[in-house]
Amino acid sequence: MAKIPNEVEAAQKYASGTFLEDNNFSLTRALPIVIGIVAFFALYEFLKETFFPNLSGWVTHTASILLVALFCLSFVLWFNRLSKQRNQEFKSMNSELLREIIIRNRTEERLKYLSFHDNLTGLYNRAFFEEQMQRLSAPRYSPVTIIVCDVDGLKFINDTLGHDIGDSLLVAVAEVIKNSYREGDVVARTGGDEFALLIPNSTEAIVKKTCNKIRESVASYNEENSKLPLSISLGFATSHDGLSPADLFKEADNNMYREKLHRSQSARSAIVQTLKKALGARDFITEGHADRMQDLVIDLAKSISVPERKHADLRLLAQFHDIGKVGIPDNILFKPGPLSNEEYAEMKRHCEIGYIIAMSPPDLGPIAELILKHHEWWNGEGYPMGLKGEEIPLECRILAVADAFDAMTSDRPYRKALSSEDALNELKKCAGKQFDPKLVDDFVKLKGRNRISNAGVGLH
Residues 145, 195: contact at Cβ < 8 Å? Predict the structure, then answer.
């Protein structure tokens, strides 16, 4: 904690009353004494001449002294009380002043801290890092190495799981890097997803050891936090003749991006695989739903002569159309009843989140647009784009019919499953509104010919 300035110490003394005691001579102490002495002699003479002119000498003296003493005592008591009141007022005023001074000093300390630190991670910020780069460019610190670390897939995580999850990942990165540097090194968060280490008097062995420590810490973190793996790209550069601090940082940054190009795709794929597992762990319709959906969409596709080359995409769509639900809060996803307008608006985001996820790995890229549009309605009242009729891809229209049928014939927390006959009747009611009427007709005929297996009952 910062040392309290002299003005604060003085205010503390004044507020506690010790300020007056520190002085050898005090007006507050001396005034009653002076007044008492003057009053004593004045009253003594006045009383002696006025009230006791005929009394003998010693009686006059005694009576005068008693009256003077009584008067002086009354005056001293009154003055003492008045002094205490005034002193209390001064103490109160100085207590307020003390609080203001302390608050001001704490605010100044906080502002000074924030001017050189990142508020989220507690590491130094870019301004401080650049200042230290200039300081450590002196010959006695040479050679200096800068290691640049970039968090792979942070934007992807922010877009799909939310910025709170992204922030928690940044905090984890900061902890990983904190455990990997030497005393005297400078560690900072230099950008949204970028961190940097400044290592003075570095050698090749020291740099390799630091990089290995970071990678080992990442591996250790991922073993303990398998739900969302951490991936960091590293790049470093060591100072040499004629290289300015800014050029040194740029060289390290370029080296980091070269590594990032080699590992970015695998990092995103690892994150997507983790999200797939997360969907399987969270989604209450997963048990048998994906398998049933694949059978339903392929049977319907075959009945309307969809080219076989599109069957693979239909299977992927049936399996991953709800991948965006990993970004929906549990209190909405698992709510055992109808959603409010605000909750429904949040739930609708899963199409866009799913699209972002599918755009990352090459294996889901072909169905990204289908994931985005799989909740569009035939009459244009669906979401997120309000497409209608044949503007909606055929694969999405097929999925919509099959998904609705499987949902209606599966149990949900707030209702029991419908029979196949009742579910088909509901599809007919919504034909031309939510569903492609021709596909509904084909699906009903197909079901009537018993070419579609009855959907099993799962927990929705």
Answer: no
* CA dist 12 → 3, 4, 86 (Å): 14, 10, 17
Rounded average pLDDT over 442-446? 91
Per DSSP, which regions of 49-175 are E strands? 145-151
Instruction: Name the phi and psi angles at 150, rounded to 5.
Output: -125, 135
Helix (H, G, I), strand (E, B) or coil at 385: coil
Confidence grade of residue 194 (pLDDT, cut at 50, 70, 90): very high
Q: Across residues 295-310, what is the average pLDDT?
A: 90
Rounded-to-integer distance, Cα 371 and Cα 348, Å? 12
The number of angstroms, rounded, from the C-alpha of 247 to the middle of its chain's C-alpha atoms is 33
Widest CA span in the chain: 144
DSSP secondary structure, 298-345, as one string: HHHHHHTT--GGGHHHHHHHHHHTTGGGGGS-HHHHT-SSPPPHHHHH
User: Model pTM?
Assistant: 0.54
Q: Please, what is the Cα angle at 431 between 428 and 437, to 5 degrees? A: 110
CB-based contacts of 268: which residues, under 8 Å, 6+ apart?
Answer: 152, 153, 156, 360, 361
Mean pLDDT of the chain: 79
What single-letter DSSP state applies at residue 365? Answer: G
Torsion of CA 376, 377, 381, 387, to 10 degrees: 50
- DSSP H stretches of helix in 117-144: 126-135
Q: How confident is the model at residue 20 (pLDDT cuts 50, 70, 90)?
A: very low
For the chain, what's the residue count?
A: 460
Greater pLDDT, 371 or 290: 371
Q: Which of 353, 347, 348 is nearest to 330 (CA)?
A: 347
